[in-house]
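#onboarding

Welcome to the new folks! Below is a worked example of what a typical request in this channel looks like: someone posts a single protein sequence, and someone else replies with the predicted structure as tokens. Don't worry about understanding the tokens yet, we'll cover that in week two.

Example request:
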Amino acid sequence: MDKTKLIPVIFLILVLLLGGAAIMLYTEKGKLTEDNKKLTKDKGDLTAERDSLRDANNKLERDKQDYEERIQSISSKLSGIEKERDEWKKKFEDISSERDTLVEKLKEKAKTETAAQQQSSAVTSSAQEPVSEEYWADFVKVKAALEVKVEDLNKQLNEAKLKLSDLDKSNKELTIKLDEVNKEKERLESEMEIKERTMRIVSRDLVSEREARKIAMEELGKLRGENNSLKRELVILNKEKVQLQGNIMDVAEKKDMLEHKISSVENVMKEKSLELDELEKELNTTIRGDGKVMSRETASVELPPIVVKSNSGPKGLKGEVLAVNPEERFVVVSLGETSGIGPGNELKVLRKNKEIARIQIIETRKDISAADIKEINPGVEIQEGDIVISK
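Example response:
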């Protein structure tokens, strides 16, 4: 395949590959952007939910603290009530004991009085002597005092009973309240445990989301770096494209110029070949004839002038091989009359700064020349584009 046609094909393939890569990167970037937006939204929702759960947890903590304070207050109040109840019980027992003692005393007093009356009646009946009024006055006073005291003790006892009843009632109410507070405390602890589990789950989700976002950002950074690299490569390729287009244009111009030069050389070679054929025919005719065969037309043909070959000429001129005819062992080079090259000048053929052949100019034109291959290294063939330098 022609190189001039292969270069645009290669360039088109590179452009298509870069375009496909750019489209893939743009699509991936858009997808990552959407994922980033979604993750950001999810993060906001999770953050709001976390804040709400945190506020609820703080509220539950405050409620728990209030309930604990209430439980402590109720417990201390219940302890005080129980202590007071015990004091009232003791007091009730003391009053009961005192009342029983007084009742016993009254009973003994009554017995004593009865015995005294019996004795006094006996004395009265026997002695017929009257009992002292002072004795009976003291007896009445003592009895009245004891009755008042017993009545006071009965009142205190009743008050103690009422107080004990109230204390028992308060104790029952406080016990009920304490049970309710304990139940509320258990409920709050259960809710707090659920909230804590939810917080742990949300925290794990946030950590996972943060890790996923970090990985996505790293991938996005890598893709951005690759995108920037591809952009730089695309710029370089665009520059190379412009340069290649310029080179293609130059090559096309050179190709047209070389085709024109080769066409000219071919025309010249055809003309020379025709002239040589005519000369060969005339020479053969002359050799076969008796010397009178030469006609006016033949006599009017001018033989090409004999040129004395000379190795002298400008040195260091540099050109390149334009065409090669290995069958006829001659080449066409890009040095001509304008360069000062003439028939007989010898040139070296170089490839990679190494001499591979030696040629000699046989015919020149304005910008090109034809040369015979005089010497060539074994196994080497002169190619188009090889460098020629005048000796």
